[in-house]
């Protein structure tokens, strides 16, 4: 087991608490994006910053926060002074430094003043949404930045001195062949980031790309997706990036701890409209509406909807689904003890079949996917879900 994967397995037993803040502001909506967002105004931004602090006071913080993640939307769309205000709110919540503090930025929004505000706040990790270095592919995605802006943004981020820098890339894009994708990977590696996230394009409902798919303007190509997955893993492994999750690669010490903790089914609190939480025995997501979220917070209420009780069986199921996406896999032993009522017989039968088919490797209580298995990780997740669900059906 590589050092990065061993570190990931060690984190499995640590009961970490994370904080996620959804900053819902975007200048425009990318064709592939299904996340909740609004175009900002001075009034809505000011209200958002105030209400984040108010929402935090409604949470029962049982232990210190270890990781923070600002996502969106585009957190970097906030002005430097507003980033400083949000950063001060984070420090008040945490009461001190955190192990890791990540912020997503779009290349067009990266300025020295914004980066200075983030560094002063205590941010340790920047994730830059590159997606591609090719102008025609950026246009096809509806991205509002240029190749030149990517390079300029990266230089500024490096000069600012953040501990970790991640680049987000996407493949299987309309009009993208293997040579174009490999050239994007070469360009990304040449910049020498600490971490790379490579996501296969997905078609989410209520997006412009979904409309194009439904009209036949673009088509799915599972064979090409598989080939690009395999070439990605081979190329980045040779370049010195260790894969620790289906879509994530890092140099030693630079894995995203916030995401690893989430995949291990530890706890996190989500603040902001549409932000999800898994905390204090419940799972749910805030209402995806800035005005309604603000109204609820103003009444002294959390805006969380569709709350689900975090039973041991539900957590065990999700720990296997997300744990199997990681190269270290998942240790089923602690979950068997924690959730003895789950249908482990059905789960064991599934894992045995996957082992026999070369999709997984079992070692005592730990199970992990092979490369073949990771290529079908989504389908594996569905089968795990069905195995756990068979218990509920049988018990009804």
From TrEMBL:
Localization in the cell: Cytoplasm
| Residues covered by the Radical SAM core domain | 11-245
The UniProt family comment states: Belongs to the anaerobic coproporphyrinogen-III oxidase family. HemW subfamily.
Q: Name one GO molecular function term.
A: 4 iron, 4 sulfur cluster binding
Q: What is the primary gene name for this protein?
A: hemW
Q: Name one GO cellular component term.
A: cytoplasm
- The entry's protein name is Heme chaperone HemW
Which cofactors is this protein said to need?
A: [4Fe-4S] cluster
Q: Which GO terms describe its biological process?
A: porphyrin-containing compound biosynthetic process
The alphabetized UniProt keywords are: 4Fe-4S, Chaperone, Cytoplasm, Heme, Iron, Iron-sulfur, Metal-binding, S-adenosyl-L-methionine
User: Mind telling me which InterPro entries this protein's record contains?
Assistant: Aldolase_TIM, Coproporphyrinogen-III_oxidase, Elp3/MiaA/NifB-like_rSAM, HemN_C, HemW-like, rSAM, rSAM_sf
The answer, when asked if Metal-binding is one of the entry's keywords, is: yes
Name the domain of life.
Bacteria
Q: What does this protein do?
A: Probably acts as a heme chaperone, transferring heme to an unknown acceptor. Binds one molecule of heme per monomer, possibly covalently. Binds 1 [4Fe-4S] cluster. The cluster is coordinated with 3 cysteines and an exchangeable S-adenosyl-L-methionine.
